[in-house]
Amino acid sequence: MINVSYSSCIFLKLIACFSLLVPIATVFLRGGSNRGNSDSSSSSSEEGYYGGKKHHGGHHGGHHGNRPPPRPTPKPCDDDWHAFYRPQGVWCVRIVAATLDYNGATTACSNLGGSLSGIQSNEERIWMANKSMEILTANGQTDSGTWLGASCTIRGCVWTDWNTVGTEGMLWAPGEPANLYFSPPCIYIYSLAGATLSQKPPNSNGFIDDSYCRGYKTINSYACGKVGLRNN
């Protein structure tokens, strides 16, 4: 009896001790779990701060800050060239002062990346004549012309720049062309120290004349043309 009671007492004490240890262990385990969750939550929060919305905003701003500025719109023509907007695309023209025969003007224009230009419209014809007059009078000349890109036979003249079409810009001076039956001539636009087409003599600023291709003493410039940017 005594041994049984003693053993029972010991057993009861062990149960009591175990019952005390279980809550403590539970609290300990829960505390460790909460602390782990807290750490995880903190890590997630920091991750969200740097990798979430705020970080995204900073990145977004940085993206705009590092984006290169927009490219400037390309010019339709190089400097010193004038743009004409033809139905077939942009055609760039430059009037160059030079006392050359037709072949010399052709070579000089080719060195600029172009070919002697034709005239497609009255707008082009008037601009070329006035620009030629402006350049040549600045050089002290008052009676001169500007070579154009054309090939002539007894049947007439055609443009040779592989771009100009039609005959609207081919306004002949009265009585011209006069040299088609004598030799294959070249043509030029007449430049005089005046601003209107009603001037006298008839070969006034803006009219076209034909000439011997080697006759260049009074033809002191050429019209060089080339294709510009077609999408402007």
Automatic annotation (TrEMBL):
The UniProt annotation puts the region (Disordered) at 34-75
Renumbered to this chain, the Low complexity biased-composition regions fall at: 34-48
Alphabetical list of InterPro entries matching this protein: C-type_lectin-like (IPR001304), C-type_lectin-like/link_sf (IPR016186), CTDL_fold (IPR016187)
Recite the UniProt keywords alphabetically: Membrane, Transmembrane, Transmembrane helix
What SMART domains does this protein's entry cite?
CLECT
Q: In which domain of life is the source organism classified?
A: Eukaryota
Q: Where is the C-type lectin domain?
A: 88-213
Checking CDD domains in the record gives: CLECT (cd00037)
Give the Basic residues compositional bias ranges.
52-66
TM helices/strands, residue ranges = 6-29
| Entries under PANTHER family matching the protein | C-TYPE LECTIN DOMAIN-CONTAINING PROTEIN, C-TYPE LECTIN-RELATED
Name assigned to this protein: C-type lectin domain-containing protein
Q: Name its species.
A: Caenorhabditis elegans
